[in-house]
Amino acid sequence: MKIHEYQARELLSGAGIPVPAGQMISSVEEAAATYKAVTSPGSPLAVVKAQVHAGGRGKAGFVKLVKSAAEAEDAARFMLTHRMHSPQTPPEGLEVRKLLIAAGVDIMPRAGGAKGAGEEFYLAVTLDRANRRPVLIASREGGVEIEKIAHERPEAIIKAPLHPVAGLEPHQGREVACRLGFKGKHILAAADVMSRLAKLYLARDCSLAEINPLVITNPTTEHPDGRVMAIDAKFNFDDNALFRHKDLQAMFDPTEENPGELRAQRFGLSYIALDGNIGCLVNGAGLAMATMDIVKLHGGSPANFLDVGGSASEEAVTEAFSIILSDPRVKGVMVNIFGGIMRCDVIAQGVVNAARKHKNTDGSTGFRVPLVVRLEGTNVESGRDLLRRAAADLPTLQPATDLADAAVKVCRAVG
Ligand code: GDP
Ligand code: MN
Predict the structure, then answer these.
(1) CB of 368 within 8 A of CB of 405?
(2) By percentage, how much of the chain surpasses pLDDT 90?
């Protein structure tokens, strides 16, 4: 599960990591008052940020520094009325429904570095599968180019593994802070952020806890040494551990999820939307993978991953069809069932019911898209028989003898 940045900031600040004051808004009307609440006449800088479950907002123009209530309102109006496009969004972009308005910070430039640009650090804790333990990842070259840096110059990324029992040890944090170039009092401040982030990662069963960027603010009268602060954060949580974090469950934002995936969850189906045009309905995750592979092998492109599970009911199968067909990209459907616990006749009845229930835009029922069905295993004969008897409801049906035959037929059918 993912959460928004404004929620991530609450978690950081609750864990004792310094974060600038901020508030979430969902309408243009709230912008001016919120701007005034998070700034003061002596420090008018604020930042307006789109709250969506995708990164790359800065480059997309959805993170804006503002210096007045009027500018805050303009930025809010722009973001709430335009879809955001970044390398991390779907091609059609994302609708922005929420914004964060936060106090802006003056970022300290790198010592001896170019004037103007502030120094931004990257900090994250995630799972290192190869080493079978969480790892702290840090870089002196954080900010909006981190993906590029990680790809082109992996040596600019520092890694420190967490001890399975002790977690991130204080000396590791100090060492990483020194290697990142922190000086004087900032070394302990940065090491403290790392240690709190690592504890948060473990305590909340995260799969990612990321701060990008971590910055040192320019000195002010209140903080003459400047402060080490997090000005952007991202958290992903392990869904299998969410049952023990009621407060995190409450942060779930359904409007950010794919509607098909949400419906599928309610029926116990594992569904992941993809960008191809062949809908796949399969039982078993392994078979679903193999089906997608073989569709690709024959030149097709799957529109989704869908595992109806080992014991799906007729209703779940009907629902699965309805989810697949609600995706306008779907130009053909391939059903691939190996009946074990799952009985082929249950699936076949589900297919027939779905066809009878399916409404086309002109009010008629039945599937218009080509449908290729491969059934094998428990009760396969009665399953095939059911489909034959319902031929009138399934004019586009092509039975297939095996997996390869099904893939060839569905790829040919969608062109
Ligand atoms: P992202 O592009 O989605 O990762 O959004 P970020 O919140 O990280 O913002 C992008 C960039 O905007 C940061 O890397 C900073 O360079 C800049 N930025 C964000 N907030 C502030 C701020 O309060 N002060 C200053 N000076 N720059 C900021
Ligand atoms: Mn960022």
Answers:
(1) no
(2) 80
* All residues at 6 or more sequence positions from 80 whose CB lies less than 8 Å from its CB, including other chains: 27, 28, 96, 97, 99
Using CB distances shorter than 6 Å, the residues near ligand 1 are: 47, 49, 55-58, 63, 65, 104-105, 107, 118, 120, 143-144, 212-213, 231-232
**Contact criterion met (CB below 8 Å) for 280 and 288:** yes
User: Which ligand has the nearest atom to the CA of 6?
Assistant: 1
Helix (H) or strand (E) holding 150: helix 146-152
Pick the atom of ligand 1 nearest to 58's CA.
2
- Grouping H, G, I as helix, E, B as strand and the rest as coil, residue 280 is strand
Separation of 68 CA from ligand 1 center, angstroms? 18
Superfamily of the domain at 259-414: Succinyl-CoA synthetase domains (3.40.50.261)
CA distance 65 to 102: 10
Point out the ligand nearest to the CA of residue 218. Answer: 1
Cis peptide before 395 (omega within 30 of 0): no
Which residues of 146-255 form beta strands (DSSP E)?
A: 157-161, 206-216, 228-230, 233-237
CATH, domain range 120-249: 3.30.470.20
Ligand 1 closest atom vs CA 120: 14
In tens, the pLDDT along 154-165 reads 999 999 999 999
Q: How sure is the predictor about 92, in pLDDT bands with cuts at 50, 70 and 90?
A: confident
Query: Which of 63, 86, 212 has most ligand 1 atoms within 8 Å of its beta carbon, as the pocket-test mutant?
Result: 63
Question: What's the rounded mean pLDDT across residues 357-381?
Answer: 91
pTM for the model: 0.83
Domain ranges within the chain, ordered by starting residue: 21-103, 120-249, 259-414
- Residues 271-329 have pLDDT tens digits of 999 989 999 999 989 999 999 999 999 999 999 999 988 777 888 888 999 999 988 89
**Topology annotation, domain 21-103:** Dna Ligase; domain 1 (3.30.1490)
